[in-house]
Amino acid sequence: MIQKTNHFIEIDSSETSPNSKKTEEALINSEEKYRTLYSSMNEGVAIHDVIYNSHNEAIDYVLKDINPAYEKIVGLKKNDVINKTA
Questions:
Q1: What is the pLDDT of residues 41-62, one digit of tens each?
Q2: Dihedral class, residue 6 (left if φ above 0, else alpha if ψ from -120 to 50, else beta)
Q3: What distance lies between CA 22 and its chain's CA centroid?
Q4: Selection from 57, 53, 55, 64 nearest residue 86 by Cα
Q5: pTM given for the model
Q6: What ranges do the domains of the chain cover?
Q7: What does DSSP assign to residue 42?
């Protein structure tokens, strides 16, 4: 069973049917392609979680992930900014 929670995808590998194996392999291949693109692209990418106040207005954000190009362009190191508010 594949279930998306937060930013992760959980795979229950206890299922042994051929379809679940194919699905798992396809998911792994897709994730590898995404990670390769994300890590090697020239454009800077940052993934944020927006923080809202009680009036549903955006008041801040937390950096959840950045790629190497973002580090180079902005001059910030991933370990220094991940899970911190702007």
A1: 999 999 999 999 999 999 999 9
A2: left
A3: 23
A4: 64
A5: 0.65
A6: 2-40, 46-81
A7: S
